[in-house]
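Why Aldehyde dehydrogenase 1? Reviewers of the renewal asked for a concrete example.
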Amino acid sequence: MAGANGSGEGSFEVPRVEVRFTKLFIGGQFVDAVSGKTFETRDPRTGEVIANISEGDKADVDLAVKAAREAFDNGPWPRMSGYERGRILHKFADLIEEHVEELAMLDTVDAGKLFAVGRAHDIPGAAHLLRYYAGAADKIHGETLKMAQRMHGYTLKEPVGVVGHIVPWNYPTTMFFFKVSPALAAGCAVVVKPAEQTPLSALFYAHLAKKAGLPDGVLNVVPGFGPTAGAAVAAHMDVDKLSFTGSTEVGRLVMKAAAESNLKPVSLELGGKSPVIVFDDADIDMAVNLANFAAYTNKGEICVAGTRIYVQEGIYDAFVKKAAEVARKSVVGDPFNPRVNQGPQVDKDQYEKVLKYIDIGKREGATLVTGGKACGDKGYYIEPTIFTDVKDDMAIAQDEIFGPVMALMKFKTMEEVIQKANNTRYGLAAGIVTKNIDIANTMSRSIRAGSIWINCYLAFDPDAPFGGYKMSGFGKDMGMDGLEKYLQTKTVVTPLYNTPWL
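Here is what the prediction returned.
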């Protein structure tokens, strides 16, 4: 396939990808769905079927929750010392590192992700995050309380119980471990419902977890569809906690189901429409490359995609010119090709949604500077796209497109751009490009978003909590905040007699 700039990709070798696990993983075993039904998972490079996956629904979720309940209520996992749990999680991480190539291949054929990025970042990053929480497993402790009366008080931090995780398709490995790592470290048992578009790596991780010594029932993986399997997890009376990453629309349904069932606590990481704000003092080449990285990483299929680019008027024209040049040079093609910068959208639905938004942008009166078209004769590829003359109330400036579409806008003053940046229902992340520490400090405190990246973007780290403001959700992944949400606090009080002090 030709790149976005019309140049060919050159020859490269596509590895043979073997799919080893296609069944549900419940109670430590791979099993068929109760209904016997399967569904197809497709390769977005071609649209062809990769494998038929067992299709879990309510009956299978019931079995998975029952297995998790038994593992939590009567099994060894929550009763082990944190040190012992940490050793098993470290072994799990070792096994991930032994299978980096195979796991990266699965995410490439299932999600259209760049193989080189998966191999270098996503899969090793999952092992890193698992090790971070393995190291925290024996450092979970409460406090001794200084009571005002003759009482001895202390708190215990206890695992919340059976956790339902509903994970998205854009980062199948990363999101799996955002959820599973801290929950396991806390001593919980989990039921994971991977996205129906990308179930392959989740099933492989279930296999590795068992091999690492995770007791049966502690980790269960039930592929299936949102309205059936996902809804069953959200509404289950025996799930104690729910963690969901996905769209704001589905997040509402998850919260409603949790409230109408057993009032289980919910954490949500939802949509975003993140601003990248470039000031006049910025180095233009650096700023353009950062904006390109923010908008087009993972073909724009990322909740924190920086797709609203605000550029101060003094450098706006030069920025637009360079941004268009960079976008046109980006090579779109097979994600196994090391020379490719952007792979295909995850599936036909997402591909058509992005193209629809590009049409909406044109109809709304924005100027299409570059891109805007599908490319290739098969698969779900779209050119990196830039619009200028974008107004804040346009759909392409307000809605999460989840594709390689950048909206460029001009601003004059810092006060003006703060207002513009906050004029969104979302609040997940923001980027600021400036050499002025005063501007950086003012902006970082003024923008209502969960992550602020100054002169960088997508600066994730296991120790850095991640989560949103406003309709981007609530609750944090990563950091000690990510562990805390899988724990609950118990207060224990006992009288003191004849004590020399309180």
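The first helix runs from residue 58 to 74. This is the kind of structural detail the renewal will allow us to pursue systematically.
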